[in-house]
Write a structure and sequence with these properties.
alpha/beta
Length: 268
């Protein structure tokens, strides 16, 4: 396997951005590769399916590699991973801030598929994330169903309006999201594409090919369990293909490690 720590200038963001890219081994752990010529081991025609994997609040591009066993699972299931830094921007175009939606939606796939051995086409692209990244994955997957075959949200902040009230009860998190800078105020979210309920309705009504949805959460996750259950029910009622799973745990890496394993198993 190969791990790339990348830094490049993003036109959409107007500055340099960090991205970690993981590419599975070309030999797939085959011990007989020693008998093969190098051009057979490093086959220029080999390409990989890709998961665009998003981090949560207070983390960065390196968090999945540092805190989970995602490398082991990606090697097993043969997925490349593209893991960008998104600051605390919820992967949207901020009203006062950076255009992370445009970066993830337009620029990052162009950059990744130009520089790495990634398969193109909807059937070969997936997007997933944890917490804030779960919101980001759902935001992009529902807005671009023609690009991603499946979306994974692990302990996802899927009700961005309700999240505001929840965070007010957690002392260290009260001011962590600047709703004014990001969304132009909480009152300006409902009914827009940043409202996942409205976006799911829009995607369904346009009769577009719907991505498969995978949602997980820890049963003791006081932040996300209620909103994830409700969003799962809403998507199911709208006719989405939803796989939902709960496991013991709070808002923690134990849950997310098992979630990404199950997601890869599901889509492989």
């Amino acid at each position: 396997m190969s791990i790339f720590q990348c830094n490049f200038f993003s036109k959409c963001l107007g500055n340099f951005v960090d991205v970690t890219v993981y590419v599975p081994s070309y030999h797939n752990g085959d011990i007989s590769m020693g008998n093969l010529p190098l051009e057979k081991i490093y086959n220029k025609e080999q390409r990989f399916k890709t998961i665009y994997l998003l981090h949560g609040m207070l983390d960065d591009h390196s968090s999945w590699m540092r805190w989970s066993m995602v490398e082991e699972q990606a090697e097993k299931y043969r997925f490349a991973l593209v893991m960008p830094s998104g600051q605390n921007g919820f992967y949207i175009n901020a009203v006062h801030g950076l255009a992370y939606y445009d970066f993830i939606n337009e620029e990052l796939p162009l950059w990744a598929e130009l520089n790495f051995p990634l398969l193109e086409g909807r059937e070969n692209r997936f997007i997933a994330g944890l917490s804030m990244g779960g919101y980001g994955a759902m935001r992009h997957g529902l807005a671009n169903p023609g690009r991603y075959a499946a979306v994974g949200a692990f302990s996802g902040a899927l009700d961005i309006i309700g999240l505001s009230d929840i965070l007010k009860t957690i002392p260290d998190m009260r001011n962590i999201i600047d709703y004014d800078s990001l969304f132009g105020g909480i009152e300006n979210i409902k009914g827009t594409d940043n409202d996942l309920y409205a976006l799911a309705d829009k995607c369904r009504k346009e009769n577009r090919e719907l991505p498969k949805i995978y949602i997980t959460c820890g049963t003791e996750d006081a932040i996300c369990i209620a909103m994830d259950r409700e969003f799962k029910d809403a998507l199911t009622d709208k006719g989405y293909d939803v796989t939902y799973f709960e496991m013991p745990g709070v808002h923690e890496w134990k849950v997310w490690n098992e979630s990404i394993r199950r997601f890869m198993e599901l889509i492989s």
